[in-house]
Amino acid sequence: MNRRKFLRNTSLAALALSSPISLSAIGSPTKKVGRSGHLNLSFSPYELKLQHAFNLAKYSRTTTPDVQVQIEFDGIIGYGEASMPPYLGESVESVTRFLSKLDLAQFTDPFRIEEIHEYMESIAPNDRAAKASIDIALHDVVGKIMGQPWYKIWGLSHEKSPNTSFTIGIDTAEVVRKKVEETAPYKVIKVKMGLDNDKELVEIIRSMTDKPICVDANQGWNDKEKALEMCHWLAERNCIFVEQPMPKEMIDETAWLRERSPLPIVADEFLQRLTDIARAKGVYDGINIKLMKSTGMHEAYKMAVQARAQGMKVMLGCMTETSCAVTAAGQLAPMVDWADLDGNLLIANDIFDGIKIIDGQVTVPADRPGIGVIPINR
Ligand code: MG
Q1: What is the pLDDT of residues 195-252, one digit of tens each?
Q2: For site-directed labelling of 375, which of 232, 265, 303, 324 has its Cα 20 to 30 A away?
Q3: Distance 340 CA to ligand 1 centre (A)
């Protein structure tokens, strides 16, 4: 098939699939009465089923609670999502409660994203994943009105997206070996750490591949001397950075570690939003931005700009999410140093087509407007 024919077929398929769909397939939808020329919100719980049990330093789980969101504006549907891993403190109940309080129908212009965020802040100070779901759906509507994907609206270059890492959780030696085999399409491996067998995990991986490793200790190291010893040991084994090595409250110890560590130290649990970045200076070398922490794409973009202005590295991460939120995050990927956008690959019941990993690189659909997704499997 020649390129023109391929593009025409792709856009026809996109048009056919992007027509309004019923949320009834994924749960009982909560829909407010739609009015033309106004933003009309509907949402529905959707439990994400994980491919493998997800084992971290602090807990293990096989599902992630999630709420799927749609905003309709004059026949255009924007898709959004709130994913709520337990440690963030949100739930289907809290997200549903927050979304039920919103009166989005008062807005007649979806381009007023900043104003809609101010309105959401006035409703409640936290509820970050719930706010992200609205933000993502709004960006989808606006991008579709403009007929452009967000990386283009932001003026970014598609081909500058970094390689994404593929995550290997804490597990038995046998499972880790199997997971390393699954990392074949990726050029970077991310390892979850924070238990007694940290070195053993890395040694298993190193016996199978030389690919660079990103380490995420998920606050699992409590002793700064031992953490420093680990950083030196990891640096000798082609590891490229360490994410959240110590508990987020251990600020002085983390600053001590950062001064001496041969590897960059990246903040994840320590930091949620734009206003937290100033506190990270001198304590961390970089920040991990996630849409579910940042209240969505609008603030995530500002965070990337702010971190850069402070001379910090920027990493882009995600939760276990469908391709909806992961593809929305992928629009920002050309701005960042490191990407960890594999959350959609960790679930067994994705309901969107969107971001792809091509030759190890994060790749959002180049010409698909909005956040770049099409609903599937419904
Ligand atoms: Mg992390």
Answers
A1: 778 898 899 999 999 999 999 999 999 999 999 999 999 999 999 999 999 999 999 9
A2: 303
A3: 9
Fold category of 3-151 in CATH: Enolase-like; domain 1 (3.30.390)
Structure tokens at 43: 């949402």
First vs last Cα of the chain: how many Å apart? 28
Tell me, what's the pLDDT at 366? 95
Q: Which two tokens stand for residue 108?
A: 């007649």
Cα–Cα distance for residue pair 253/245, rounded to 1 Å: 10
pLDDT per residue as tens digits for the range 252-306: 999 999 999 999 999 999 999 999 999 999 999 999 999 999 999 999 999 999 9
The pTM score is 0.88
CA 256–ligand 1 middle distance (angstroms): 20
* Cα–ligand 1 centroid distance for 102 (angstroms): 30
pLDDT at position 20: 40
Domain spans of the chain? 3-151, 152-375
- Which residues, including other chains, have CB under 8 Å from residue 249's CB and lie 6 or more apart? none
> Burial of 256 by CB count in 10 Å (0-12 exposed, 13-18 middle, 19+ buried)?
middle
- pLDDT, residue 182, reads 85
Alpha-helical (H) ranges within 248-339 are 251-260, 277-280, 291-294, 297-309, 323-330
| pLDDT surpasses 90 at 171 | no
How many Å apart are CA 167 and CA 179, to the nearest integer?
9
Task: Report the 10 Å Cβ neighbour count for 80.
Answer: 30
As a whole number of angstroms, the distance between CA 239 and CA 254 comes to 18
Q: How far is the CA of 216 from the centre of ligand 1 (A)?
A: 6
Q: From the CA of 164, how far away is ligand 1's center (Å)?
A: 14
Q: Find out whether 149 and 331 touch, Cβ atoms under 8 Å.
A: yes
Say which CATH class 152-375 falls into. alpha beta
